[in-house]
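Memo to structure team: turn this sequence into structure tokens by end of day. - J.P.
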Amino acid sequence: MVYFIAFKNEINKFYIQSKRYIFDTLSRIISTYLIFLSLFYGIKFISGPDLDNAKLDAIIIGYIMWSFAYNAYYENSYDICEESTIGTLEQLFLAPIGFHSIVFFRMISGYLFSVLYNIAVLYLTMITTGRWLDLPIFNFLLITTLSIPAMYGLGYVFGGFSLVYKKIQSSLYVVQFALVFLVSLPAYPLNVFSFLPFTAGAYMINRMVVYGENFPLSWYLFIFAISLFYFFLGFGIFKLFEKKARRLNLLGQY
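Reply from structure team:
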């Protein structure tokens, strides 16, 4: 029961923050949309008439997948960094249900709100470009859900950095550019790129939406297995930094 209450509180927290800081919420959607506009029209201007509909669709879905990946990685790492900055991190470690249970519930809550946020951006991009994607919403959300734990694992890594090194915001912004490559590399059929975090899922969605391709069940299982691997790898690295921060008495310091 206590875990359900904690999860409900995290949902309420996201809702209240989004409503109370409505200007920031709207600014987030608008800024993501404006970045897409600059990307889309920049590529369209450079490519000219050679930019066919399939490439337009690939740009749209690739950008949305980048947004999903960035939100998951950034929110997880930034939340830990912010808790350390405002001095509440040590209190979370003393919570009855444990720090990692709270972080896990935040991941789920953040992902649910991220789905709403990115769908809103997706429709804005389709309205702007005039390209209405035939989006299989169930498969889209299923594949994204199977792939997203890898990004939370990456967030854990930088969250661990923040426990020891504290101020890491600059590095968080740098990684967003690396995510562009993760969502654009060809990962099917099985090759070296397939083993990168989030890449297989992003490529699968791209091919499914743009070209209507179908994939075997084994590929879904492969995506989930790779995603869990990176999640637990990131979690393990976080635990190492947590252990170091405890040894150096850094949890309550900034």
